[in-house]
Amino acid sequence: MPYAQQENPIKQQSSSEYIKAIHKKLKDRNPGESEFLQATWEVFDSLQPVFEQHPEYVEQGILERISEPERFIAFRVTWEDDAGNVHVNRGYRVQFNSTLGPFKGGLRFHPSLTASVVKFLGFEQIFKNALTGLPIGGGKGGSDFDPKGKSDREIMRFCQSFMTELTRHIGPDIDVPAGDIGVGKREIGYMFGQYKRLRNASEAGVFTGKNPDNGGSLIRKEATGYGTVYFVEEMLKEQGHSFKGSKVIVSGSGNVSIYAMEKAIEFGATVVACSDSEGFIYDPEGIDVETVKQLKEVDRKRIYHYLETHPNAQYGNDKSDIWKIQCDIALPCATQNEIDRESAQAMVENLVKAVGEGANMPCTEEAVRVLTHNGVLFAPAKAANAGGVAVSAMEMSQNSMRYSWTAEEVDEKLLQVMKNIYKTCTETASQYGAPGNLIVGANIAGFKKVADAMVSHGLN
């Protein structure tokens, strides 16, 4: 048979076999990248009914194309500390999929950052961004640099060196980074300043998460935490529950965690525990979120200092023990894979009603199975924490218009986006035979939006 007429054997398999074959190819091509492979399988595992209804996705190789980045950039970042010592870190940017718009996703500065973590975050970002309904593609990046314990000038020098390379790969209509773990207004400011210096142009739309006095959007810092609570509240209402009167645990103590706590308290909940990378605090009277803000946003101190002003609180050295505390609602907002099977089982035994993922992929595959098989309401990250990127896209719009919305306007738009995402996820889950399964709903809805656009664009 002539080559042009040969059939692709993978495409002749059943949908289930086809998905497994493509993921096996992905494993062979990306050995050792456990986080990336975990994230891709979590999506792939939901897609069997999609391929049964849409053979054109198979014909055009959508699954293979969507799981391969358009571009992966790795580079050396050389900087000098205050004592004159030279240090070298690795910088990354994955430009995963631009089908719906310019690449959009945060920059993370953390010593645990690897190529695998960057790719998992970028892959998740494709579908999260699609769910917002806004015209943005998926990307992610960062460095294994650790800003903790560094002076402002050391952080500035690192950010300037990082941006000297990254500047050539980004732009308001190409790739628009934002903040993530270890990257806040300070770091964004330093990087944006270097970008302007190198480009000799004031392109405010190239970064989001900027200071509101310098082109940033109001509510951006709060958006991911607020959005997580808005989404979870919609999920709870569907089952006759609410944050009001509930006992809540929130892991982490960064922007996502702090503002998830703030909004949960505003909704009538009592937040009894939060954590940082060294341990956790438990305050049965309710965490004072203003104290946590002071410690983390102003003083930059560890969470155990909370006990200095709240002596009735307790401190635990093992941050994973936070999940052994009884609660009605758990919001993991720290980092990936922080809830394992054992922690999930402890939560089930303590009769947790709902889990909302404020961080990216904070539950392992085993933990998700334990929670969902025991009837726990589960809000997956790509839907529940999409509020941050939604407001980032709003910041891009405001920069394009040379205009700023009020905090109330942005918050109202954020609330509506999260309600729309919840509605999309529930309707899609029902349409594809998995009513109530928000994991399936989010994965399929996000995938279909990008896949349909990729089909219409042809092979690229």
Automatic annotation (TrEMBL):
Gene3D superfamilies: Glutamate Dehydrogenase, chain A, domain 3 (1.10.285.10), Leucine Dehydrogenase, chain A, domain 1 (3.40.50.10860), NAD(P)-binding Rossmann-like Domain (3.40.50.720). It comes from the Bacteria. Residues 217-458 form the Glutamate/phenylalanine/leucine/valine/L-tryptophan dehydrogenase C-terminal domain. SMART domains: ELFV_dehydrog (SM00839). CDD domains: NAD_bind_2_Glu_DH (cd05313). Keywords: Oxidoreductase. InterPro entries: Aminoacid_DH-like_N_sf, Glu/Leu/Phe/Val/Trp_DH, Glu/Leu/Phe/Val/Trp_DH_C, Glu/Leu/Phe/Val/Trp_DH_dimer, Glu/Leu/Phe/Val_DH_AS, Glu_DH, Glu_Leu_Phe_Val_DH, NAD(P)-bd_dom_sf. One of its GO terms (molecular function) is glutamate dehydrogenase (NADP+) activity. Homohexamer. Belongs to the Glu/Leu/Phe/Val dehydrogenases family. This is Glutamate dehydrogenase. It comes from Planococcus wigleyi. The gene is gdhA.
